[in-house]
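Lest this sound abstract, we think one record worth quoting, the chain in one-letter code, the fold tokenised, each line plainly labelled:

>
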Amino acid sequence: MRHIVWDWNGTLFDDLHIVVDSVNASLACFGEGPIDAVRYQAHYRRPVPLFYESLLGRPISDGMWQTIDRVFHETYQGALSRAELASDALEAMDAVLAAGGTQSILSMWWHEQLVSAVEAFGLVGRTVFIEGHRGTPGETKAEHLTRHVAHLGERFSRTVATPIVAIGDITDDAAAADAAEVGCVLYDSGSQPTAVLEAAGHPVAASLMEAVRLAGISL
């Protein structure tokens, strides 16, 4: 049986609309008008400063980035009450458990905030491990997932099923899975164009229930 490593933002947590609002708050600091989800998707890339350079059409200084980062996170934090779990998140997580699998949640969101959100949605009992970002700014998802997989082996070797499959919503998740040498399914939640997700070379799902099926979970 398999262990699923769930991404949080944009995967289990349906937050694209408040992400776009937070980006718009950041852009407004530089006199730029708002974008919509379609334009967000068209410009989205990692690392995030390149995304803003694409939107603004000019390089971003360190000072500009500090403003963008601060305003984005302040706006996002204030808008959390307007976002919910993906419509089939609970169903998909319960399907993993019903099939005898195990699961954890990994996010680049700050650890304390991630744990608070996961607890608020009542998901703690469905997971063996919740791990947010504790490192330094600029760390990659690949480094984070590789460390997470190592932690699973060290702390839960007798509990966690194998093989391990990561489910996320952007190509960064695919690159991280490749680096950590685990499986991957991408969930098409709207953060990136479907064709871009497909080009990453992993299965792409239109729903979380389809994602767990593609990950090898018997439904």
User: Anything to note?
Assistant: The two ends are 13 Å apart (CA to CA). The chain has two domains: 3-15+84-214, 16-82. The chain has ten helices and eight strands. The mean pLDDT is 95.
